[in-house]
Amino acid sequence: MSGKTPVVVCGSPGSGRTIFSYGLYAASPYTSNPLIEVDCYHLNAKQCDKLFKDERSPLFENNYIILFKNLNALSPTLQNLFTYYLENLELTSRHKVICTFTGDMGDLIAANQFSQNLSYLISGFTIQLPSINHKPELIVSIARSYLNSLNQELPIQIAGFEPEALKLLEEHHWQYGISQFQTVLKQLVIQSNSQFITAENVQTILSHLGPSKSNASRDTRLNLNQTLDDITKDVIDLVLKEESMNQTKAAKRLGISRSTLWKKLKMET
After folding, report:
1. Which top-rank group of organisms is this from (predicted)?
2. pTM (two decimals)
């Protein structure tokens, strides 16, 4: 973070990309300067022009941290505008630029869904945040650490978790990642009527979130009474879902190249 090389923080929904970006800002030598956030998900062409053309825009200053959130949400037209303005305003040489990106940028470029020229301008360091579902061994340590924070934040003191409660948290599939996990932990603390969070407490809250990992596995059985092409399609879809739609990881599990996987997906559409 000492220089102005751009940083792209990638990850699945709920992986904590924005929070991680705040941490980068706090660790940078620019922390005394403003952090400017631009959420690309809500950006339109008119706002984009105002952002990059109006001389009162903070982008015309120097040595700020510019956080472009949800860069993958830009339409093809806005991607071209971003490419033009970033290049002509020399934005990455005047500011520290951080971008958050949902999914795998390489996969979207290969599928012609993201501009390669824009990727060249904003890709210096790329950080891929893992999904909490791929790191179940971290569930216990995260739960205990966050519980300590909640004990300081809330007028409630919880001593810990029953072992069976932690096991249920480990086995659950967190569809919306670490953000969903933290929300559930806060609910557990608020609703607990004892010094320990019990398995019963966890089961009650998780029952409102959808099927657990084990139930989800039962729902993904293949229908073998189909053509080979349809079975292949179902296998690809299942592996993609298990890998949070990361085509690189899915292709590796399937034993094919990413380009072959992309061709098969294109054939489906």
Report:
1. Bacteria
2. 0.66
